[in-house]
Amino acid sequence: MTADMTTALATGYRWDTERLGTAIAKGTVHTVTLAVVDSHGRLAGKHHTGRHFATRILHHGEHACAYLLTSDIDLTPGDGTGLSGWDSGFGDMLLVPDREAIYQLPTRPGEALVFADAVDGAAPLAVSSRRILADQVERLAGRGYSAMIGVEAEYTLIHAPSAEPGPGQSWPSLVPVARMNADYATRHPRAIADHVCAVLAGAQQMGLPLEALKTESGPGQIEATLAPADPMRAADDYTVLKSLSRDLAGEQGLDALFMAAPDIDSGNGLHLHVSLHRDNTSAMSTETGELSHVASHGIGGLLAGLPQLLPLLAPTVNSYRRFRRHSFAPTAWCWGYDNRTCAVRVTGGEHNLHVEIRVAGADANIYVALAAVLATIVEGIDSDAQSGPETIGNAYAQGAPRIATSLTEALADFHGSDLPARLFGSAVADHLALVAEQELAAFRDEVTASELHRAMRA
Question: Residue 223: enclosing H or E segment and its boundaries?
Fold first, then answer.
């Protein structure tokens, strides 16, 4: 282990402003990127000279166009949202640095990444992704609980396209670096082996709490496991891991594809492991190691509420191609002990029980997905929701309520429920609906390569 790695692990992987200021003064950091999380879970922002950030931005923030929170995935400006639109002139929001969320990626020497919170005047913008999550963390705390979140994220390593297609042109087929089922394999093609080693080394160098990488069953598929953390830190760490993985893949001429269903026979999940604690003690199991009433009510809340919030966990048209029988992605709203065919899996040792929510795909905005999970758990606790009987055996072959099979169906369930507005407030619920509506609109206005191919064969 190098001295840099030892320092990173000893002092913490998230920098504070004192450490950042020292690095800027020494010249080891010359660029500071202030970034807000947009509605799709991506980082967007500005690059500043270190000196300008330290003397100005750190204390006063930075302005950016509020359309970053209302645009679709192609940055087509959203209109009529009340936050940003043609009638309002597309005004600014203020990005305030989060002094406790500062990272330095080894792939970007001399640059520090600072997460920002979006503010309007003196108030946080309720529709910003980090605020949506923070509100639900506070709601949980109001019941006397805290949460720890473990993240298991899957992605596909592909050969990077030689060039992005021009207007009206179709994307070329995305080619994974390998085709075989390599689940739990210890020998890999050189491209995968190099990528795995680079990500593990990079995470260790910066101190990012990545526990393990493994290859999965899908073509070119990799799963990353992050250590449990509080919800905001878990979401930030995952967002940084995505940047690290894509940076390192790019150095190989590859890309890391966080897509729910890159292939009809495989899917990339974003599995969220959730445990609740009260007074530093697990609230998920009894003294005898059984599932507690709190955990049971939380599971009931998840199974009752998430079907009405599914666009927050499965936000794209592609998301729904992942929900297929015998795929290890769930197709029904049910729960079971150590049962990977269920939407909610209870796992862990008898005194470390927690729930794994297996519904979200790799394309989900983790901040919003976590907010939906925590919100429905609180709803279940508040209402003493019943979890129903445990599913034993193959959930694909049993009669539990099915998961929606399209974004259109899921959005109709969202619109038809009063739960989103009750949990998030009407403004945030409308904003979340808009994100899904923009995704559907993009496909209504596009003739896909598959449609053209089928027409040629007709």
Answer: strand 221-229
